[in-house]
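Retro notes
What went well: the complex prediction finally ran end to end.
Inputs used:
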Amino acid sequence: MTLPLLLVMTLGHAAGAVGALVARSGPGARGVATAGAIVGSGAGLVLGLDTLIRGTPFQLEIPQLLAVAGGVSLRLDRLSAFFVLVVEVVAIPSALFGGAYSRAWEGTPSLRPLGAMLNLFLLALSLVPFADNIVTFLLLWEAMSVASYFLVLTDSDQRETRQAGLWYLAMAHGGLVLLMAAFLLLGASAASTGFADLRTAAAALPGHTRNAVFVLVLLGFGSKAGLVPLHVWLPLAHPAAPSHVSALMSGVMIKMGVYGLLRFTLDLLGGGPPWWGGVILAVGAVSALLGVLYALMEHDLKRLLAYHSVENVGIIFLGVGAGLMFRSYGLMPLAAVGLVAGLYHTLNHACFKGLLFLGSGAVVHATHTRNMEELGGLIKRMPRTAFCFLVGAAAISGLPPLNGFVSEWLVFQALLGGPTLPRPELGLIMAFAVGMLALTSGLAAACFVKAFGITFLAMPRSDHAAAAREVPLAMQLGMGALALACLCLGVGPSLVVPTLGTAVAGLGGLPAGLLTEMPRLALEVPGTAGVIAPAVLAAGLCLVPLAILAAFRLGSVDRRLRVSDTWGCGRIGQTPRMEYTATAFAEPLRRVFAELYRPTEDLSIDFHPESKYFVQSIAYRSEVIPWFERLLYAPVVAFLRRTAFRVRWVQAGSLHLYLLYMILALVVLLLVSRWTS
Amino acid sequence: MRYLVSLGEVVLALLLAPGLAGLIRWMKARLQNRRGAPFWQPYLELRKLFGKEVVVSSNASWLFRAAPFVIFASAVAATALVPVLAAPMVFDTMGDLLVLVYLLLLGTFCLALAGLDPGSAFGGMGASREVTVAALAEPTVALAVFALALSAGSTNLGRIVVATLTDPARAVSPGHLLAFAALFVVTLAETGRLPVDNPATHLELTMIHEAMVLEYSGRYLALVEWAASIKLLIFFALLGNLFVPWGVARALTLESLLVSLGSFLLKLLVLAATVAVLETRVAKLRLFRVPELLSVSFVLALLAVSSSFLLR
């Protein structure tokens, strides 16, 4: 059953990719690419669900392929199946959305590569969790990065996009180098590069090597996941890509960093000393808080969402870090809570971030701008998009009864288990993390009041926004499906959590059977004794308004309604310029966190030549400086530039010289191999 | 029977809430040598508002009309989680203290969006300030929850009450006292009392809550105002029954319920008097001084957690 599905998945994406390249540029190419993506991802969805629920691992070895490097080896266990599921849950709606959305590229040379690369990207994404030896993993990992790099470059005629692509490529490959170093350390004493052999070899490694592997793996996967301070590429690359690709990159691709970290630290290394968990916890807390703080200052809708991905990856790492720490002290039930919380938030973030990026894509599609200060009033022009975006905004803010709340609650419950740790200072760290997480979710709610309120409510602030129309049905369906997923994951955690409990069982010595028994409607966390029943809560939240309406009907309540102007202190007409702007909305928080933002302000007022009481024009510029990024990256970039300049003579453009290099390299390698053997 | 009592508790809380707001107003007036409206004035106001026509801005969307219902529903759901008379309650398994906090955040979220919807600058200003205060108050609340959960072993409110009732020494532990102080500051901020917000003014430079609800009228305004007073009652009930749980009925006899009702009213009275005195004594803080106040409360909550750790 599994092998045919895998074949359908691969062939569907392959057919989509090839078809998009050969079909006539236009609706044909779009249709083929979309169909291929949906068929492939649909097969992947069934595959992931099947393995996740039944739990029979699937294995496929193809030693003939790439025999030099140990052959291709694929394996799907419950953890990988979960991540395949995460990929496909976002992939199908995004592909559907993208089919209609990519119409904007019709008539440009980008259309066909866009469809082809989308399919290759989806294929690589869904295959990464399958990899069962180092070569397969690295190849798929690189395919995923490169395909997404080309997708980012869809609008390569814009300078910003090219720059974003360069940053992305540099960060992705920097990460790759670190990962390779980690794998070399890990695989040095192993019988083969297969994961099973690595697991046995890792147990025998000395402590400092294991620590080095952990640090390298954390940095390598952290750069993909977008942990602070390795997150710089996210706010550049995610907005530059087409929106359905942004949904996939932000919702899914960065989660592969989470997968990699779990696979390597927890599964292959089998967990480590408590400070591993502590580091992950600390990095997660900092990422969560800084991500949301920078998002607050952002008025580009897609950049704002990209910063929120940094925040949510931070929340995921809070859960994972707490889980690892509890595991080190043998507190297995709490460890399972932490890890399951991380995984649940991974799935939830995929759903609501996918939804929000698709929503922002719909906004861009209808108004051709991402700048919130030019938007407004879209709720009347695009009611369905607005509703879906609102669901996503409430979910990412962690409001009940949607999915973001449930997973944040689980993370809280894991952190609240801190006092059971044998060392009180670690418990205090957890208490601090609780405070950071609460501040993060409060700020996220503030940020999404801004994002939704300024973009969709009140009056349009520009002509583009005023002329917006609702997007095509396929795009609405894509958003609607994800909105529904947000609701279902929010009210049905008692079904999700036991499944996730089985996915983490067996990893790093976690016993099976943790978190697998749940009351039917409630979510109960063993170890901390917190109970919630989101389904009952949701029912209550729906019933109360109905009861009020019924009471209005029965009671002597006046039900007349008159539409009139907004009250305006006696002024005659209301214009959009009187509305609050996104900048103004975030101003109180900018002042509160001025130490972090270090904002620069530039105000110039042009007075009337005759009297300074009449202002002709006011120009106001304000910028938030990401100072720690500059502090960290400017020296690195400068160093790279200097070095590149110095070694430039090596690449002189002469073919003869290059041939000489090759011969020299060959000779040196032969000599080396002779000496070492 | 237990379901009936629990439902009765919710209804009682909903009915008491406007009176509580009126009581504080009346006490404040007496303290300021004014005669003041009677404490039942808010009920009259609600009746009046329910009987009035609604005027909605032409810029507003369906969200503006749906928000009062969501705000009220979230307040009702939060009330169901609070132990008013008896513990443990039926609704205890529906959610815990964190759910309560996030339900209130849901109300704030909707109210802030509704403030932005008519497109007036007042609404935007109020919304912006409200979410700032709410976000900055959040970590204090979470740490106070942490401190309580630390001693009770659960975040569910009923269990916290029962744990404190079975071991009364907990109530005077430094952790509890500090958490109480922290939550009291947050109560002032979250329910829009002085020194954070002035519930008695419509002066545009200082207002937060009033600015957001400026466009509401008629039955919508009634729901929003009622929900605001419910929020006040919820916080008072938390302060009263979580930290000083004596009087809360553990068995459902008529006698213990009556004792419980009496003690609950007494607690409300004491807290209302405290707030009234405080509001006559302090001036409103500048908006950008509010974060300092909230960081003080955060430090208090952090101290509460640490002392619970060290004195365990």
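What we learned: The first strand of chain B starts at residue 54 and ends at 57.
What to try next: split runs per interface for comparison.
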